[in-house]
Amino acid sequence: MSLIERINQVEQQVSEACRRSGRNRDEVNVIAVTKYVSVKMTEAVLNQGIRHIGENRWQNAEEKWRALGERGIWHFIGHLQTNKVKDVIGKFQYIHSLDRLSLAKELDKKAAALNVNVSAFMQVNISGESTKYGLQPEQAASFLEEMNRFKHVNVIGLMTMAPFETSAEDTRPVFRGLRQLRDDLNQLAFTPEPITELSMGMSNDFEVAIEEGATWVRLGSILVGKEEE
Ligand SMILES: *Cc1c(COP(=O)(O)O)cnc(C)c1O
């Protein structure tokens, strides 16, 4: 399939998932995850009007960002080591993997130095798999409360990764759990404004994630494909 065909097909699947769950199409943002593809393919994606680009490692992203940075809105979706914050701050507007206070502190410090703000998703390990990064759900409330002191890091929502399941339907409880956690946190009202965003759903499970309230889906292989480099 060509890139255009893949984009059209994903768009149709996103629209149908919205319709099934009574949501407006514009509540769901698609991030093209370009970690498996070249600068050239990333440029082709931008040329198709997709603006949100996701990368999980600075080493993979650097060449693309240097060539195309200003054309996109960049999302850091992978585990972020504290010593890599200096590389990504000021370049990536969104961090999807905020999972510890030491990281928040470093993001805030480096963002303050550049006089920029960064939008962050608290990554929560809903599935409980030991291989997954993220806060435990029980830690989320106190973490969110602590985040008020970091003026350059705005927590806008929550992120999770579901376990890989042969049937996407089996991921539903994980996505539902993240949405419930968001709603519970908003009941406790730790933030001046409610947190609204849910970053959840990848190529194999994004339709279920949308049905459960995803506002950002992170799509790699199904949308931009995979290239051997
Ligand atoms: C790679 C990656 C994705 C996209 O993966 P696909 O299955 O190819 O859609 C989404 N989120 C994160 C955190 C990733 O690392």
Please tell me the total number of domains: 1
Uncertain regions spanning at least 5 consecutive residues: none
CATH H-level homologous superfamily name: Alanine racemase
Strand and helix order: HEHEHEHEHEHEHEHEH
Number of beta strands: 8
Structural class: alpha/beta
Q: Taking Cα atoms only, what radius of gyration do you get, to the nearest Å? A: 17 Å
Question: What does it look like?
Answer:
With 229 residues, the protein is of the alpha/beta class. It has one domain (3-224): Alpha-Beta Barrel (TIM Barrel), CATH 3.20.20. It has 9 helices and 8 strands. An 8-stranded parallel beta sheet has the order 7-6-5-4-3-2-1-8. Bound molecules: pyridoxal-5'-phosphate (PLP). Residues 33, 35, 56, 77-78, 161, 202-204, 218-222 line the site of pyridoxal-5'-phosphate.
List keywords for this structure.
single chain; 229 residues; alpha/beta; TIM Barrel; eight-stranded parallel beta sheet; 8 strands; binds pyridoxal-5'-phosphate
Q: What is this structure, in a nutshell?
A:
The chain contains nine helices and eight strands.
Strand-helix topology:
Elements: H1 3-20, E1 29-33, H2 39-47, E2 52-55, H3 58-68, E3 73-76, H4 85-88, E4 94-98, H5 101-114, E5 118-123, H6 140-147, E6 153-159, H7 172-188, E7 197-199, H8 206-211, E8 216-219, H9 221-224
Parallel strand pairs: 1-2, 1-8, 2-3, 3-4, 4-5, 5-6, 6-7
The structure holds pyridoxal-5'-phosphate (PLP).
